[in-house]
Amino acid sequence: MRLYLPCDRPEWADREVQAVFTLLHGYTNDGDDWVCSSSALRMAADNGLALIVPDTSNSFCCNLVNGPAWNTWLTREMPHQMDRIFRLPRQREKNFLCGLSMGGYGALYMGMTHPERYAGIASFSGSLDMGLMTRNRDNPAVRQVFEPILGRELELAPDKDLFRLAENLSRLPRARQPKILCTVGRQDHEPYHIYQQNQNFRRHVQDLPLDYTYLEWDGGHEWAFWNRSLSLAIDRFVSPGYGERCRRAWSCKTSEEEKQ
After folding, report:
1. Which DSSP helix (H) or strand (E) runs through 2?
2. Is the pLDDT at 13 greater than 80, yes or no?
């Protein structure tokens, strides 16, 4: 795992971390993606955030059927180690969970399973409909990805089904529910049908008594989309207006461009 602390500005020398964001990566990748390919560190510095960026292998943040217990690591062992070594804020209202693609599933899975830990959870281009992803059970690629998670029968148990977990979460009092943000690009279709997955999830949960926000705009499965998504998650959860400030900074023109 990787850790970022907001310590690169003199004014943060004697101040507490304002919030902790845990960022989850996508399939076949690792936490280096968030550090090397995104603007996450700069956004954290802007807002006084600590970032926890763990590796989750290709686990979808689940304990594997015949392999490592990734969920146990992420939800029990890693937080315990972080508390022993760094003593980051543990209050629910200061902890948030975001993920992209496979990590989007992981963020909602972990956040809805442990709503007492996170005030907000966010999925960016998330793989949210595991039932859709596993419908072609004879496809060797589907089996390679999901057998380690679901077993040879590829049966989606209720405790791994985000649709069922959202229903369970909706039965809690609103104060005990994390805020949910889902973003997806309109061009994010093949080969994983990410746009369709997010539409299916939206239709299922939009009328449930949840604090659920859905956002879409033009974009694909790419870092430009995920950068903007992270700025909007920070905006929604801890720093109102930050997403718009980022959008203006990214789209501003130089004086020479304005003259032309």
Report:
1. strand 2-4
2. no
| First-last CA distance in the chain | 47
**Mean predicted confidence (pLDDT) in 185-212:** 96
**H or E element that contains 217:** strand 212-217
pTM of the model: 0.94
Distance from C-alpha of 160 to C-alpha of 13, rounded to nearest angstrom: 42
Which helix (H) or strand (E) element contains residue 23?
Answer: strand 19-24
Contact between 119 and 96 (Cβ < 8 Å) = yes
pLDDT at 255 over 80: no
The whole-angstrom separation of Cα 80 and Cα 105 is 23
Q: How are the residues of the chain apportioned to helix, strand and coil, as percentages rounded to the nearest 5?
A: 45, 15, 40
- Dihedrals phi, psi of 105, to nearest 5 degrees: -60, -50
Average pLDDT over residues 218-230: 97
Distance CA 150, CA 251 (A): 43
Measure the CA–CA gap between 93 and 150, rounded to whole angstroms: 32
Exposed, middle or buried by CB within 10 Å (0-12, 13-18, 19+), for 63?
middle
Judged against a pLDDT cut of 80, whether residue 15 lies above it is answered with: no
Q: How many helices (H) and strands (E) does the chain have?
A: 12, 7
Mean per-residue pLDDT of the chain: 93
For residue 129, give both structure tokens.
């409909």
CA distance 215 to 181: 8
